[in-house]
Specification:
Helix content: 25-40%
Largest sheet: 7 strands, mixed
Strand content: 15-25%
Order of helices and strands: HHEHEEEHEEEHHHEE
Radius of gyration: 18 Å
Strand order of the largest sheet: 3-2-1-4-5-9-8
Length: 228
Amino acid sequence: MLQGIVKKIADNKNNQSLSHQYRSRRFDLFKSLLKELPRPLRILDIGGTVEFWQAMNFQEPEVSITLLNLEDPQPLEAPYTAIKGDATDLSGMANGEYDIVFSNSVIEHLYTWQNQQQMAAEVLRVGQHHFIQTPNYWFPIEPHWVFPFFQYFPKAVRRLLTQYCSLGHIGRIKDAAAARNQVNEIRLLSKKEMQQLFPQSEIYAEKFLGFNKSYTAYSFTNQAHRSR
């Protein structure tokens, strides 16, 4: 029963889930901003997949998409290219190499605030524009474990829940070290922290039942913006 509820609310692969509907609405904002930019365009998607772009029905003949992940890349058909890399160190890329750096729910997976700062700095360096989304730390339902107030528990409690319960997208991780590593990996961000990471960006807030569910930092001009 619990897994059925999770699927209806938080399963991004389920087109009827609330999560997919919010993601689609956010992507509509992205596409509206994209219209203002001249073609051709190069997009770097940090942590992205072909399946995501296909699920969003994205079809732009003059847009190429490079998918950057930690795993060894597989050959892909145009307009997609896969490369191996670390979001905190894009030193192999030139300043402004990509027209847009896009990332969906990745920056919270970097373990530490320092790593998140490094990713943000690299995003701003290699991208002329950006669109970076992350869940809100203060939203009462933790989005990975899909459990109320999970992110506020001590790490030891979170590790035990991960080790002995099957929760959300994470499921049960029986090995204590692996469960601890999973807990340490996720560091949710607040709006204030997103503003610190992307000080000249607009901040788009998604709301659910009056709560801010996630934040997206975006900038599609060379001028400074005030966050809202």
